[in-house]
Amino acid sequence: MTRVARTVIVKSIKLPRKVFRVFVELEGMYRNMVEQLVMYAVRNSVKSFIRLKALKYREIRNLYPQLPSHYVYTACQDASTRAKSFLRLKKLGIAKREYPEVRKVSIWLDDHLWKPDGYTFVRIATHKGWVAVELELHKQYWRYVNRGWRLASEAKMKLDKKNKQLIICLTFVKEVKEYKPKGYLTVDVNENNITILVDGVAYLFETDTTKLVLGYYYCRKRIQERYDKLYGKKSRIKRKTMRKLKERKKKNDIKWKIANIIVKTAYERGYAVVLEKLGKKPASNMIERVRDKQLRHRIFQASFKGIQKAIEEKAREYGVPIIYEPPKDTSVRCPIHNAPIIYSNGSRIGKCSKGGEPWHRDVVACWNLLLKTLRGNGSNAPSPAGHTPVDVRLVPLASNATHDPITLPKRLWARWNSLETTRTNIKRME
Ligand SMILES: [Zn+2]
User: Fold this and answer.
1) Distance from the CA of 354 to the center of ligand 1, in angstroms?
2) Which of 357, 353, 350 is nearest to 396 (CA)?
């Protein structure tokens, strides 16, 4: 069993002035506690929460007798986290100041300091007693509630002083058990597509990763340069525009959509997802518009890693096992004849040097990932007892096997969000 956690941010409704003032006072005291504790921890190189609490609890508690005592605990936790990361920076010589600045404060809450009250209220302990606060709930919150996630006891709270609202960071948790795979879905990530192989059929999802990643990169750079010239390097208007850009990027982020489709397809069949272990993919012909070789490499690696991480995160949520295989030579040899495949002039379609049959490069990669997994020579090899053995030699010859992938245009799969629906719709259009 693994514990999967997701944070969800909710706001309270606008609070009456009097009620909000209680939280402003609370925040002030909490901030003071954290400031003192961080100073002490850094000065004395105390990195552990337990030690910090043992050394300072009494003193701080006596300073704030009116506060519920657990705020001293959470302030110690908060402070020790801040001190730890500051001491690390200091050791690396990156810290600019003597002591860390406690600028932004989120009040850490534990199960003694807050309680959900039904689904639409929370109660928060303060120096003026328990205060009930109504929440402004959204679709995402209800989605977690309705899908059986439960609220964890820890939460954080920030104050939006302009709107007199509390911003509460909740954590939903779920216990998930990873299943034993009955089969495999292999994934090959490329610059402009992601190809998967499932039940003998390869699907090529067009992604346009280059355009997406580079488009964002150049857009960012342009804005940066323009604003630097107009307003100087640290202007507020620039920061605001960059933030908007970042939000837009996140919203359009296709990696979550593709991860969702891949993981759900595997989950419905009880399969494991097989990924290439991220290695040193040659970046030379990866992203041609960028001249700088290193930068090109970095951009590709980053987007590749992003997709992989998204798949991993989704898989944890559904209990889908992930297997990693070394990426070496995955598209070089014919999965049927084990002979080299000849690709001429950088084409993605090659010809088997033994059987003469044509192969799409990404389909070859997927088949070879599957064969590697079935032979169990991968790093995370499944135990043979866990699944029915498959005759490795027969796999690529399965009756529904194709050497050409079924191409799924981005506008379609991004809209339908499922492999089956996208397929049905493509068939209907044909
Ligand atoms: Zn062949």
Assistant:
1) 6
2) 357
CA 13, distance to chain mean position in Å, is 29
Question: Dihedrals φ, ψ of 130, to 5°?
Answer: -75, 135
What are 274's strand-pairing partners? 186, 323
Ligand 1 centre to CA of 196 (Å) is: 20
Q: What is the pLDDT of residues 231-266, one digit of tens each?
A: 776 677 777 777 776 666 655 577 888 999 999 999
Cα 338 to ligand 1 centroid, rounded to whole Å = 7
Q: Which of 71, 84, 89 is nearest to 41 (CA)?
A: 84
DSSP labels, 324-341 = EE--TTTTTB-TTT--BE
pTM summary value: 0.70
User: Lowest-confidence range among 79-83, 177-181, 294-298?
Assistant: 294-298
CA of 278 from ligand 1 middle (Å) equals: 27
Q: 408 C-alpha to center of ligand 1: Å?
A: 26
Q: How far from 248 is each of 243, 254, 406, CA to CA, in Å? A: 9, 12, 30
Alpha-carbon span 56 to 345, nearest angstrom: 70
Name the residue among 309, 377, 368 with its Cα closest to residue 339. Answer: 368
Q: From the CA of 351, how far away is ligand 1's center (Å)?
A: 8
Q: Which residues pair with 173 in a beta bridge?
A: 5, 150
CA of 428 to the centre of ligand 1 (A): 33
Q: Count how many residues are written for the chain.
A: 430
First and final C-alpha spacing in the chain? 45
**Number of helices (H) and strands (E), helices first, in the chain?**
11, 16
Highest mean pLDDT out of 74-78, 136-140, 290-294: 74-78
Map residue 9 onto helix, strand or coil: strand
pLDDT mean over 60-78 = 96
Q: What is 377-417 written as a DSSP string?
A: -STTPPPGGGS----GGGGGGSTT--SSPEEE-HHHHHHH-
